[in-house]
Amino acid sequence: MRRKLIEVALHQYSLHGYHGATMRKIADEVGIKPASIYFFFENKEELFIAAFEQLLQAHFQAMQTVLAENEDHPVEEIFSKMLHGIASHHTGDMQGTIAFISLVTSPIPEIDSYLKKYMLKFNNWLIDSLQTLIKQDYPTISDQEVDRIIKQYVLIGNGVFWGINLYEGESFKEQVELADSLIQSLFIGLDKKEKETIS
Question: Which of 14, 28, 140, 189 qualifies as a FRET site for 107, CA 20 to 30 Å off?
């Protein structure tokens, strides 16, 4: 029942936003009385955090899968695949994406600290996962440059995510390709610097 409540809550968030997704609407869709929700969640905020956590975990797992499937490829291709992975993950679950946008822009104070913790965890995972792969292809790169590349990727990836809400169809595909070309330009710069360092 807990899982069903989270799924329905996400559906309601995608339809009505955080404030419009009342406990009554969630209960009605599940087919229970509103008071029954409180057997599983102490309040609306706790249900909100559980739903938000599920969305973030799904994103994290999707990125882990993309990396695992491509870790033997050149590093610039890995970054490209991960960028396209963001796009396909979120366009493949528009209900979850719309719910995420409604939740991340909600007035719940806990969400800000939760999101910051998640982004720190995600960035640390990217650094841990990609640092060795980047250094294999660019042996002279410094740790600071690795950190910069990953932060630039996160910034570009965030732009792709928010673009899902602004662009559709071919316009969105064009935005993803433009974002990918920005990623590739970072590696063109690294290639040039690597050659200069070696020569």
Answer: 28
